[in-house]
Automatic annotation (TrEMBL):
<comment type="similarity">
    <text>Belongs to the type IA topoisomerase family.</text>
</comment>
<dbReference type="GO" id="GO:0005694">
    <property type="term" value="C:chromosome"/>
</dbReference>
<dbReference type="InterPro" id="IPR013824">
    <property type="entry name" value="Topo_IA_cen_sub1"/>
</dbReference>
<dbReference type="GO" id="GO:0003677">
    <property type="term" value="F:DNA binding"/>
</dbReference>
<keyword id="KW-0862">Zinc</keyword>
<dbReference type="InterPro" id="IPR023405">
    <property type="entry name" value="Topo_IA_core_domain"/>
</dbReference>
<keyword id="KW-0238">DNA-binding</keyword>
<feature type="site" description="Interaction with DNA">
    <location>
        <position position="301"/>
    </location>
</feature>
<dbReference type="InterPro" id="IPR013826">
    <property type="entry name" value="Topo_IA_cen_sub3"/>
</dbReference>
<feature type="domain" description="Toprim">
    <location>
        <begin position="3"/>
        <end position="113"/>
    </location>
</feature>
<dbReference type="GO" id="GO:0008270">
    <property type="term" value="F:zinc ion binding"/>
</dbReference>
<dbReference type="Pfam" id="PF01751">
    <property type="entry name" value="Toprim"/>
</dbReference>
<keyword id="KW-0413">Isomerase</keyword>
<dbReference type="Pfam" id="PF01131">
    <property type="entry name" value="Topoisom_bac"/>
</dbReference>
<dbReference type="InterPro" id="IPR013497">
    <property type="entry name" value="Topo_IA_cen"/>
</dbReference>
<dbReference type="InterPro" id="IPR013825">
    <property type="entry name" value="Topo_IA_cen_sub2"/>
</dbReference>
<keyword id="KW-0799">Topoisomerase</keyword>
Amino acid sequence: MAKSLVIVESPAKAKTISKFLGKNFKVAASQGHVRDLPKSQLGVDIENNFAPKYITIRGKGEIIEKLKKEAKDAEKIFLATDPDREGEAISWHIAQLLDLDIDKPCRIEFHEITKNAVQAAIKNPRKIDLNLVNAQQARRILDRLVGYKISPILWKKIKRGLSAGRVQSVAARLVCDREREIEAFVPEEYWNITAVLFDEKTSSKFEAKFYGREEEKIELKNREEVDKIINSLSEEYVVYKVKTGTKKRNPPPPFITSTLQQEASRKLGFTAKKTMLIAQQLYEGIEIKGEGSVGLVTYIRTDSTRVAKEAKEEAYRYITEKFGKEYANPDAEYSSKKANVQDAHEAIRPTSVFREPEIIKDSLTPDQYKLYKLIWDRFIASQMMPAIYDTVAMDIKNNGYIFKASGSSVKFLGFMTVYVEGSDFQEEEEEKTLPVLKEGTKVRLEELKPTQHFTQPPPRYTEASLIKELEEKGIGRPSTYAPTIATLLERGYVVKDKKVLKPTELGFIVTDALKEFFSEIVDVGFTAEMEEQLDKIEEGKVEWYEVVGDFYRDFYKTLKVAEEQMEKVELEEEVEVTDIKCEICGRPMVVRKGRYGKFLACSGFPECKNTKPLLEKVGVKCPKCGGEIVKRRSKKGRVYYSCENAPQCDFVLWDKPANEKCPVCGSLMVEKNTKNGIVIKCSNPECGYQKETN
């Protein structure tokens, strides 16, 4: 019998931790949250200091009973959920259900799943931090109040299925406001003049751009002004000033959650949601050949760039061995720009830099490899010396006017040997080299190129730039960026066109309604202030129910006004005409959206009210009759998969079928969504075979 029970969130994390602890330890998984507010009601007692009414999450009853049984047999219980507000809350809920004494140390915390970190945590348990729990609880209740109170009004006045949220609605507003800036933008004409010059002594050709006079820059606004300058130039171009020097390009800091999401979007094309899903797998543990289950990276929800001393020392050794001592920076330090960063956390980094991406590539899926390599490269670069450039800048004079030329060349690559940070916009100029000429040198004009330009509107947000904006404005926290963007897309408030985010008509309508009646909910400053209040709860400076109460007093008044005064909006439904004919009247069927998704309806409505389900084929043959398996919805809206020949053929599955058979029993394989990603498993419950997909 195990003497100690360690409880974590996921089976993958449990598997990785188990190998670091002896046979006296049993590691069990809660599989995420075990209790939450009920979906069917508000679940908050507003009259009783906003006391939450928690219930067991559906499907978690059996897991809780197993945990209770294991806890009953254990001498010690350690709660080892993730090291953040959410993890602390899960530990508190588990402690409540297991009737643990929260005044005794039962909580352990580690920021990487390694032998040293886990064993050190076991030796140093602490009490559950109720301030952290209360901060999470306050956020959850605020989000519930906003969502459950505003959403019914939006359903009634605009459209069913809509939602509002503290972070979500501000993010939607940012996208809508940017689109309106773009629509209102009036381009302004401007011109550049580029002189292509040649130095005979060095046989060098280079370009210099018109600046103006020595004492002032001249803006060229039209062709007439350009022609006036060109006509006043002489044939003699003389090097007037030369300035040479060096400049440093510092390495970027190691990743935090937001910068990882941004860079994975730029370099890998990953959505924020996909990045976090794969990063979670890397954190919790991957089966590495010859090592077993290994946690490859540190905790992935962090806003700290701090690096542990041991990790710095290991990186220094690696860089020195691999690149040379001159590349290693023993004094690499990064401080956060934000005042409210919790530096108990670390940056996102590899748990060991000696576990190079190429060495473990065969143990990773392609996407896991790409993201691990990105994290590994960035961390190694952050511990290297800056790149050094030789620079030269020249002023070329002609008849009192100045043309400027500048160039640079790499003197020492430094961190750029490993990594160069991506950019949202392709506007970085290529490195240009210039000849170093003496002052007074005459150069020959080869060509004078006047070019017309127009000012550009602000760019639309990408996922990366929206996350950056939210972070800079103090909206949301590391755990909220990915689900916020996913919600905007799922609700139809924004669409993704290539990489940019565009608001839909629905997004504009909802945002405008919220701006009119719930101005604070979509106010950037107010939402950032609420985040600061949550931080104060975490620090024990304010009571959580007071923060919620202060918010609700004004919020309640605006609810009443909105219910009475918000006008009903008639949305024009977009319909898609199909080639399918209505079997009743012969008119074409169209695709419409209903409460539970898309369906086929006669275009002759309301004269003809014929409807039928829109059968979406999944590309898999029915194993019983050979027909196509199609996606359907039950009367309650739940997705299931059955044969197109139903009801004559009774084949049915709740999980999406995969186009392959089980190698063990020959049954059809299915895709199962889990916290750690999609798992391909056998549809035969008696078989149990499964494999992970990419």
